[in-house]
Amino acid sequence: MNTKNIKALKGYRPIVATTAYDAVLAKLADQSGVDILLVGDSVGTTQLGFNSTVQVTLDMMIHHTAAVSRINPNALVVADMPFGYSFDDYETIFNSCRKLIQEGGASAVKIEGGLKLALTIQRLVDSGIPVLGHIGLLPQLIKIEGGYRKFGKSAEEKKSLIADAQALEAAGCFAIIGEMIESEVSKKITETIKIPFIGIGSGPYCDGQILVSNDLLGFSTEKVPSFVQIFGKVSEEVSKAFNDYKKAVIERNYPNE
Ligand code: KIV
Question: Whole-angstrom Cα distance, residue 203 to residue 137?
Fold first, then answer.
């Protein structure tokens, strides 16, 4: 997969994307044929025990991106720019993206933010860095927003989301993620822009869907967002395996001669 293939999927079939943070799960997701493996900064909450994504650093992102890239997946590997790094001066932003690509092995970077970051994104794309946009709920702004909510309920917010999407398309993003956006607004954005609009908690009318792998696998020990469909029972299986192992050792049923 490359960014050109992803763009070509618009209007052909829905794009399937999920997050990956390590080689083991990345391999399983890739073998099932997902189109995009996003090394999200959700690594902070799903793997690293932080209570938000804000604590995640560039070095952490490079470390996890490299683990995913090492399996040499068919899917497009996209690495998240962590909190704050997109607001450095341009040279520093470029260097952060360069490291995610050169040291992490990512094929593209994801940057949270719309219109405000369009100029920076345009410069990055002009320098050869493919960018996946991200609008609607921006988890990196959680300290400003104060919590999670749906976006695009008011006419004003709907207008500004459409403007964000158009600005990112004009800046050269190869696709945009829309998180927690009213279904009708997502539909409008999907119809308005020519690049894929990939939803998460944004209804069925997008060009594709992305879910956090821990959530869709049922690997989360935390409550998952209401829009998530849990497709597996991984945490139950893992707990059962640990319990069975403990029992076998204590009862001296493992190991045998
Ligand atoms: O970090 C992440 O996992 C994300 C998804 C929620 C799209 O940004």
Answer: 14
